[in-house]
Design brief:
GO terms for molecular function: polygalacturonase activity. The protein is mainly beta. It has one domain: Single-stranded right-handed beta-helix, Pectin lyase-like (Pectate Lyase C-like, 3 Solenoid), CATH 2.160.20.10. It contains two helices and 27 strands. The N terminus is likely disordered.
Length: 333
Amino acid sequence: MRFSLALFALPVALVAAAPAGKRCTGTIASLNDVAAAQKCTTINIKGFTVPAGKTFALTCISGSTVNMLGDVKFGVANWKGPLFSISGTNIKFNGNGHTFDGQGPSYWDGQGGNGGVTKPHPMMKIKMSGTYSNVKVLNSPAHVYSIANPAKLVMSKLTVDNSAGDKANSKSGGKAAGHNTDGFDVSTTDLTIEDSNIHNQDDCIAINKGSNIIFQRNTCTGGHGISIGSVSAGATVKNVQILNNKIVNNDQALRIKTKADATNAAVTNIVFKGNTATGTNKYGVIVDQGYPTTLGKAGNNVAMSGITFGTNNIAVNSNAQRVAVNCGSKCTG
């Protein structure tokens, strides 16, 4: 009896010790290659076009390395998206300077997600931990990155180039064609975004909820600046550092915005330090608890404390306001 029990236990131990994924290299040159490639711990992405209306979705084995070896273009279709998504833990994503092209001009109508044709957004859905670096996003239809990392994530040396959306087109009624092209929509914890360049027509980064977030040494051009919020009911934003960024030709430079009707929400321990802004069009610094109406009636149910503005060099245009503060009763500074 003892001998037979020992034989039965042996294969169980062997199965438990087996590696989670294959130590192989998978190559993706079309969506047909994804299922097999993501079983490997190294994934190489070659240049190809993703069919319209499809998501290029990667679910990676823990500890995988992903290398871009070519540019990826997305076919055009009026659908909700996203165009690309990646999930996994402890992933190393190397863009190697290659591009995800969202073909924004085929969608842009000056309305973004507020109307007009349906636009896939976010373009890029990031649900991984580890490192994500040296990736270019060109012409997103609307929002660029949505980030929901499961553990610590460092995003670095990224480029978002929606500069073509600054101009009007035949569908935008004289307004900038690109709209709602937020660079990073953040609702997460343990995230660093650094050494990146963002040219867009909305918030460079919008931190809607989360904690332990660092945004540093980035350049934001042409949009709505660096924003905490908008903060909605039940959301908390805390322990955020906005450090040594350059903000060029934005409507606002540094902003905190909470919704007027928000309840059970808080903004605490936020540091703005070493940031430089030039060509600011509307507000250098704005703290506004009346969102979505700019400087409207402030709500009283979002607690705000521990907000620190260190040395920041903010230059505004002649018709802009340097500082505006619109606080409710729970805004203690």
